[in-house]
Amino acid sequence: ELGLYGFEATLIPVLSFEFVSLESLFEKLSQPDSYGGLVVSSPRALEAIKICLKDNSKNEAWSKSLKQKWNTKPAYVVGKATASLVEEIGLVPQGEKSGNAEKLAEYICSREKPSSSALLFPCGALKREVLPTALREKGIPLESLTVYQTTQHADLQESLSSYFSKQGIPASIVFFSPSGVKFCLQPIQKLLGDFSNQIKFAAIGPTTAEAMEAAGIPVSCSAESPTPQDLAAGIQKALRSQNC
């Protein structure tokens, strides 16, 4: 998508993920009657479910009966990437146009009744409290289960140093998550030195933009929705404004 605007994009992996509590996750997935639905706010949580289903006996149980039972309940998702992964395991996603946790919480609250069965929420250890808090305030029960932990990618420092030594200072740097900001901030600032004011910093959405601002990074653009198209258009507009 960035290439369509004439940009050359380099992707540097920032995060590594370790999956945890997968037996507990499948145990809960095996009890669809105990829950009012599923909430998935990241592709990583879906990856955890898919890892569970790689086991032949679990996959068979899912295909024979569990999938159909979960399909009688809503599967709430935060965006298109998560929605497509939900479809891959045979469920029908709802709320994919939300784009962030705040809007997804609003969507869920408009459809769920207080004191109904709990929604199952597989999530990461670094999850924000926006969605759980919003649902709790409306009396909608949510059962969270941490299924992955986020750490810094082992090659991050080396990848960044290699990029800067070969390519020089980039026109724009894009962050895709608050965790990305956290792990990248110091090495990038060290490599940029006094050149940071020449760079357009972009965010995939409002949550990441907030994390950037809190870290003292000026946000030149935030994608209107978390899609490649909106991100590319936002970066192009930000760079054009400075004739980069």
TrEMBL record:
What Gene3D superfamilies has UniProt attached to this entry? 3.40.50.10090
Instruction: Output one GO MF annotation.
Output: uroporphyrinogen-III synthase activity
Query: What pathway, per the record?
Result: Porphyrin-containing compound metabolism; protoporphyrin-IX biosynthesis; coproporphyrinogen-III from 5-aminolevulinate: step 3/4
Enzyme group, top EC level? lyase
What domain of life is recorded for the organism? Eukaryota
Under the heading InterPro entries, the entry gives: 4pyrrol_syn_uPrphyn_synt_sf, 4pyrrol_synth_uPrphyn_synth, UROS/Hem4
Q: Kindly list any coiled-coil regions of this protein.
A: none
**The Tetrapyrrole biosynthesis uroporphyrinogen III synthase domain, residue ranges:** 5-232
Set out the biological process GO terms recorded for this chain's protein: heme B biosynthetic process; protoporphyrinogen IX biosynthetic process; uroporphyrinogen III biosynthetic process
Record's keyword terms, sorted? Heme biosynthesis, Lyase, Porphyrin biosynthesis
> Reaction catalysed?
hydroxymethylbilane = uroporphyrinogen III + H2O
Q: Recorded E.C. number(s)?
A: 4.2.1.75
- Record keywords: Lyase included? yes
- UniProt-listed Pfam families: HEM4
**A cellular component annotation (GO) from this entry:** cytosol
Q: Which PANTHER family match?
A: UROPORPHYRINOGEN III SYNTHASE (PTHR12390), UROPORPHYRINOGEN-III SYNTHASE (PTHR12390:SF0)
Q: What does this protein do?
A: Catalyzes cyclization of the linear tetrapyrrole, hydroxymethylbilane, to the macrocyclic uroporphyrinogen III, the branch point for the various sub-pathways leading to the wide diversity of porphyrins. Porphyrins act as cofactors for a multitude of enzymes that perform a variety of processes within the cell such as methionine synthesis (vitamin B12) or oxygen transport (heme).
Q: Which family does it belong to?
A: Belongs to the uroporphyrinogen-III synthase family.
The name on file for this protein is: Uroporphyrinogen-III synthase
